[in-house]
Amino acid sequence: MSKDLLAVYAGSFDPITFGHLDLIQRASKLFGEVIIAVGRHPTKHPLFTYSERLELLRQTTSEVTNARIDSFEGLLIQYCQRVGARVIVRGLRAATDFEYELQIAHANADMLPGVDTVFLPTRTHYGFVSASLVREIASHGGDVSHYAPAAVCDALRAKFGAAKP
Length: 165
Prior knowledge:
By secondary structure, the protein is of the alpha/beta class. It has helices at 18-30, 50-61, 76-83, 95-111, 131-139, 150-160; strands spanning 6-11, 33-40, 67-73, 87-92, 116-121. Strands 3-2-1-4-5 form a 5-stranded parallel sheet, sandwiched between helices. The protein is globular and about 45 Å long.
């Protein structure tokens, strides 16, 4: 890959997981700068507010010196064009992810051929971890410390009113 390319890793990050962090750290070694872009979708109702998600990202990615946090509304490909990104980084957990992500990558390439999508497979031990799984476990008082950073675990306990173990 190229250290002079700007890449975007986008998601809702509701909340950020160790799987997300792994992809951010790996992408930061491949590209000169990585924008962690929080998607704002008016029809979705996230657990964490936009501000809370940004703060959790700041806390958990502070050691990644060539990453910055931003947000976007609308199409990711239009955001990439606005910021001058040449690469979209996407994580793949399973074959089903690939089918969906490939369809989106093809549409993006059709709309803006100068932006490429790079797929990074998740590490084996993060292959089943998703933000929705983390939220579900935490909502029932379960321990998510193997799936999410301490700041996220604390924020989830605060959201769901569970005592710290």
